[in-house]
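Write out the 3D structure for:
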Amino acid sequence: MYVSDLDGTLMRSDGTLSPETARMINALTERGVAFTYATARSIESARTIAGGLNLPLPAITRNGCVLADNATGKHLEKALFTEEEIALLKTLLPELPEFGFVSCFIGEEMVKTYLPGKHTPGFQKYVDYYADDPRMKPVDSFEGLFIGRPGYVTLIDEKERIRPLYERVRQYDCWETLFQKDTYWDEYWVEICPRNCTKAKAILKMKEDYGFRKLVVFGDSVNDLSMFRIADEAYAVEKALDELKAAATEVIGSNDDDAVAKKIMEKET
């Protein structure tokens, strides 16, 4: 079973998937090679880039919170915050409207709720960038951020301004908390998702469900460490963090040179 991170790993530095990588991955899956991706993105966002991949397995999205069909975008399995966890998040993060948004599920639709007004520069840049995205849903109150069934909180700002929020929420073991620099922008992100939602735990469940005996993974950043630790083989791309390279079986070529697809081709030849 092969699993690759998307941003900075399978995708190029310009945020796209090269036609050659898509061609090689589809040729591999047509031969019966088991491949999928694991990403912090939602399936809706991931499919704008990787929707042309023919995947035999569910895509692992939202850092393991949501398993989804890459062909259709349908949510197959999803983790959600409990009412108690939502109440605690509201208490711990009064700054949430300024710093970020909540990913909420309304039926099968996923929306990103945010409160218009004063935002950090990093979050405002995100709002402006996705201004035409119909999933961005402005609400009129703090309570309105938690509509439907909330399953993910995202905060965006400069590293030192956002670190105190991370330190505040990471003390609780009722959820998973990530703190890392964005792949393409200078800002740092704090991401909070339900407990046991990591790339590694989603992959282990899939490995057991499908009966795979061996796991090979690819990554570049902090949120890939969990899957590196459980893999039989783990490959870091050339521009990966030093921490990830230290945990890797091998450091391969550049994500701008189809390194992941080439490595799988090499192993399957």
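The CA atoms of residues 11 and 17 lie 5 Å apart.
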